[in-house]
Amino acid sequence: MDKNSYHTIEATSVAEFRDRGSRFIAYAYPLKDTHDFKEKLAALKKEHPKAVHHCFAYRLGFTGDVFRSSDDGEPSGTAGRPILGQIDSKGLTNVLIVVVRYFGGTLLGVPGLINAYKTVAADVLSNNPIIEKPVLEYFRLQYDYTRMNEVMRVVKHFDGVVVKQDMQLFCVLEVGIPKLVVEQVLGKWKDMQGVEVGELEGNT
């Protein structure tokens, strides 16, 4: 993973692992932010109300420096850390894995739990194609409506991502531009008369 791109998953996937009656169901999701995480975890808890544990791990941000893991009542270090380890072993970010466990009546012990959570996390990622995405830098543009075609042509040509737009007589556009081509894009916008460009916080 270089500073201009990162690896993640594009879709949701599911995998299951069984050991001595216990069922471990893993769900892998592409993740936008911590609010997205809370919504996905709440939805799974609603879907699996009788499960005894909802363990998880996620990593966020193109540098991968935002992360969290939880054993959700399992012995310390037996669930969240092995799940996060599988995300990290593939060099992924903006990824969430939740493992739902139904207890089968037999204690698995620490080694058994670590193996179960590690195995099902690896399986759920192996079912999911890994993609490379560019790191984006975000900008806010203000311009006259007559400049819209010029502005949007540049956005499309350089694979920009429109986040928000308000197209009236005076237009406001929030857009993400791949970091690798930011200087070229800014140069083209600055050559356009009546286009004001401001930087927005946050990369992804």
Q: What does this protein structure show overall?
A:
A hairpin with a 3-residue loop joins β9 and β10. α2 packs parallel to α3. The chain has five helices and eleven strands, in the order βββαββαβαββαββαβ. A five-stranded antiparallel β-sheet has the order 2-3-6-4-5, sandwiched between helices. The chain has a four-stranded antiparallel β-sheet with strand order 9-10-8-11, with helices on one face. A two-stranded antiparallel ribbon has the order 1-7. The relative contact order is 0.18. With 204 residues, the protein is an alpha+beta fold. It folds into two domains: 5-132, Impact, N-terminal domain (Ribosomal Protein S5, domain 2); 136-203, 2-Layer Sandwich (Alpha-Beta Plaits), CATH 3.30.70.
Task: Give the helix/strand layout.
Elements: E1 5-9, E2 13-19, E3 22-30, H1 34-47, E4 53-60, E5 66-70, H2 80-89, E6 95-102, H3 109-126, E7 130-134, E8 136-144, H4 148-157, E9 161-166, E10 170-178, H5 182-190, E11 195-203
Antiparallel strand pairs: 1-7, 2-3, 3-6, 4-5, 4-6, 8-10, 8-11, 9-10
CATH uppermost class of the largest domain? Alpha Beta
How are helices and strands ordered from N to C? EEEHEEHEHEEHEEHE
What count of structural domains?
Answer: 2
Strand order of the largest sheet: 2-3-6-4-5
Contiguous uncertain segments of 5+ residues: none
Q: What is the rounded distance between the termini?
A: 14 Å
The biggest beta sheet is recorded as:
5 strands, antiparallel
Measured by DSSP, the beta-strand proportion falls in 35-45%
Q: Can you identify the CATH superfamily of the largest domain?
A: Impact, N-terminal domain
3D shape: elongated
Number of separate strands: 11
Subunit organisation of the chains: single chain
Give the helix tally: 5
